[in-house]
């Protein structure tokens, strides 16, 4: 097991009291906090400078969200493992975390012992989601992702445009293809994603609800 003092950590939260509490807790438990940030841009800079073992990021931060920071840092191919620490339990946030292949997702209500459990799992290259999440929610999100990965590149493009609430004719005009071709793609997407097409505008509704994860395809 890695010595705690050898685990370098960057933490970011726009609430000073939460940031200080997390910092103090980590220091009291012998972790090496190499950087703190109160907005997303600061967090990204600290990560790129220090290349820490772990980064604990709030999702809702000024300038850049925690998800934005992770996406941009991953594009720079940093070795840091990312854990989000948030109040959000909604499926759309779980979906974004899954789509970005984030190592851990903790809730601010979790105890520090669970934070440490998350560290241990993540450092073993495992993924850890707070025990407060319902297992069914995680399974549904994982299944949605698996199905979306089976779409062709053309179908993914169509799905992204549907999630932006564009009509078939607007998509056809944008992609310089026929409306009939768009409708064929839509039909294939509905079948592959196992969407109930008996409901009016089922694909539009599904795509809008999953828009945050779709944009990461």
From TrEMBL:
<dbReference type="InterPro" id="IPR039420">
    <property type="entry name" value="WalR-like"/>
</dbReference>
<dbReference type="GO" id="GO:0006355">
    <property type="term" value="P:regulation of DNA-templated transcription"/>
</dbReference>
<keyword id="KW-0804">Transcription</keyword>
<feature type="modified residue" description="4-aspartylphosphate">
    <location>
        <position position="58"/>
    </location>
</feature>
<protein>
    <submittedName>
        <fullName>Response regulator transcription factor</fullName>
    </submittedName>
</protein>
<dbReference type="InterPro" id="IPR011006">
    <property type="entry name" value="CheY-like_superfamily"/>
</dbReference>
<feature type="domain" description="Response regulatory">
    <location>
        <begin position="8"/>
        <end position="123"/>
    </location>
</feature>
<dbReference type="GO" id="GO:0003677">
    <property type="term" value="F:DNA binding"/>
</dbReference>
<dbReference type="Pfam" id="PF00196">
    <property type="entry name" value="GerE"/>
</dbReference>
<keyword id="KW-0238">DNA-binding</keyword>
<keyword id="KW-0805">Transcription regulation</keyword>
<keyword id="KW-0597">Phosphoprotein</keyword>
<dbReference type="InterPro" id="IPR000792">
    <property type="entry name" value="Tscrpt_reg_LuxR_C"/>
</dbReference>
<dbReference type="InterPro" id="IPR001789">
    <property type="entry name" value="Sig_transdc_resp-reg_receiver"/>
</dbReference>
<feature type="domain" description="HTH luxR-type">
    <location>
        <begin position="144"/>
        <end position="209"/>
    </location>
</feature>
<dbReference type="InterPro" id="IPR036388">
    <property type="entry name" value="WH-like_DNA-bd_sf"/>
</dbReference>
<dbReference type="GO" id="GO:0000160">
    <property type="term" value="P:phosphorelay signal transduction system"/>
</dbReference>
<dbReference type="Pfam" id="PF00072">
    <property type="entry name" value="Response_reg"/>
</dbReference>
């Amino acid at each position: 097991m890695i010595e705690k003092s050898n685990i370098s950590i960057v933490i970011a939260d726009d609430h000073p009291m939460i940031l200080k509490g997390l910092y103090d807790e980590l220091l009291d438990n012998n972790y090496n906090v190499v950087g703190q940030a109160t907005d997303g841009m600061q967090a990204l800079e600290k990560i790129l400078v220090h290349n820490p073992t772990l980064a604990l990021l709030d999702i809702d931060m000024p300038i850049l969200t925690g998800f934005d920071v992770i996406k941009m840092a991953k594009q720079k191919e940093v070795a840091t493992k990312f854990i989000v620490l948030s109040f959000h339990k909604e499926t759309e946030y779980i979906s974004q975390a899954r789509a970005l292949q984030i190592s851990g997702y903790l809730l601010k209500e979790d105890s520090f012992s669970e934070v440490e459990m998350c560290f241990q799992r993540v450092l073993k290259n495992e993924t850890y989601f707070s025990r407060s999440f319902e297992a069914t929610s995680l399974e549904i999100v994982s299944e949605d992702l698996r199905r979306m990965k089976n779409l062709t590149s053309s179908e993914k493009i169509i799905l992204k445009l549907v999630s932006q609430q564009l009509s078939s004719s607007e998509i056809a005009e944008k992609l310089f293809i026929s409306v009939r071709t768009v409708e064929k793609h839509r039909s294939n997407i509905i079948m592959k994603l196992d969407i109930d097409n008996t409901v009016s505008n089922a694909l539009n509704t599904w795509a809008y609800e999953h828009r945050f994860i779709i944009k990461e395809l």
